[in-house]
Amino acid sequence: MSITIRDVAREAGVSPAAVSLALNGRPGIGEQTRIRVQQAAEKLGYIAQRQAAAGFKTICFLKIARHGHMINPDHNAFIADYIDGISSEAAAHGYTLEVKSYQTFDLEQIRGDLSRSQIDGAIVLATELTESDIPRLSGLPLPVIFIDACYQAHQVDVVDMDNEGALYSIMKTLKDLGHRDIGLVRSTAETRNFSLREKFFQEAAADLKLHTEPRWTFSVDSTFDAAYRDMKQHLEDRRDLPSALFCVCDIIALGCMRALREAGITIGKEVSIIGFDDLSPSQMSDPPLASVQVSKTRIGLRAFELLHRRLQEHSPLPYEKILIGGSLIIRESLGTHQQI
Q1: Collapsing DSSP states into helix, strand and coil, what is residue 155?
Q2: How far apart are alpha carbons 111 and 178 in whole angstroms?
Q3: What is the pLDDT of residue 339?
């Protein structure tokens, strides 16, 4: 007996319309709902049945959490943008997209799941992966593309954001606004992009002759509530702040802004704040948060293009590392020190 879309909807606890949106890569549902539908469809055999009928090939988006400080509901928006970029381009080329979510890194489980699902290629969200994970995953018997992390030492295909260009733009803008003393709010959660942003923060500060000091580096967790809690503790311990703070991501910046407001510090006047990712809440914060906007949809699209080329080409191709540039979005959290 064939499995219907209503069977999948019943298994996932959603409407048939939500199943259609999820399995066709359409917007209009949350990422958690999309994943739940994908899992229900795979469990019932609906995806394999659908692919066999349509003659489609299948690629997979692997979302692997190691510690959950970045792969969590606070960051669902940018993960959904990656998926939207991949799925829209995949559908245009006759591929279906499966989303597989793992709460730990278990290579044998991943290998087994890919084998059972007859996956042709994979795009891996490398946000929480360690450097030693990269060669293990690149050794899978299918083409693999990594996004949201760039490890230069490994000969693998990567599509990531241009952290270096973004940090130089941030620091140059802060200098143009009249800032000379710049602080860093870093994350206690280790990710490759965060590490690169810290590195280029220091390099840009040195090149532009801006003043940074160890006491102006604040370490906080990368979830909103924990970043707020940790920054609140820093402010209780000391109130010596530079005139501007760069936060390695928007979630951290938003948590820190709450702590600063509660401490009676006027954001944009006593201290300027800038984040990274330009998430939707940044536009509605008090004050609106300046940030770096990088198209996650574009990263997903380019990742599929690279994977598709791997699948179509029969001879070996050199590995590629593609960096997508960002735009600095000026908002009120930067204040009005000077006009740019």
Answers
A1: coil
A2: 53
A3: 37
pLDDT at 306: 96
CB 289 within 8 A of CB 254: yes
Give 215-232 as a DSSP string: GGEEEE-SSHHHHHHHHH
Helix (H) and strand (E) counts in the chain: 13, 12
252-264 pLDDT per residue, tens: 999 999 999 999 9
What is the model's pTM?
0.79
- Give CA–CA dist 97/336, Å, rounded: 46
Q: Are 272 and 174 in contact (CB under 8 A)?
A: yes
Q: Is the pLDDT of residue 338 over 50?
A: no
Integer Cα distance of 128 and 67 in angstroms? 7
- Read off the tokens for 227: 């970043």
Gyration radius of the chain over CA positions: 22
Quote the mean pLDDT of the chain. Answer: 88
CB contact at 8 A, 291 and 282:
yes
Task: Walk me through the domains of the chain, giving residue ranges and CATH numbers.
Answer: 5-161+295-325 (3.40.50.2300), 163-294+328-334 (3.40.50.2300)
